[in-house]
Task: inverse folding
């Protein structure tokens, strides 16, 4: 079985899950199976690239959050009236 045929088989199972099976239960629970299908269409290299991009974005957010905490910690505490 080729990689392409495995991917198509997995995609078919996600699009038309067996009634009562785990995939059907996940879909009925509200899991968006189309996102899984989209990921399956990517090559492993594309998935790694996307993951690295997401990590960089999270690191940037963390850095901005830390800067925000530092600047608010430098401000004097306000008293409530």
Result:
């Amino acid at each position: 079985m080729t990689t392409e045929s495995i991917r198509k088989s997995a995609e078919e199972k996600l699009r038309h899950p067996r009634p009562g099976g785990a995939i059907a239960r996940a879909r009925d629970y509200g899991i968006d199976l189309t996102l899984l299908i989209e990921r399956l269409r990517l090559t492993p290299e594309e998935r790694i690239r996307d993951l690295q991009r997401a990590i960089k974005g999270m690191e940037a957010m963390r850095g901005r959050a830390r800067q925000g905490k530092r600047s608010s910690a430098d401000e004097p505490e306000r008293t409530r009236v």
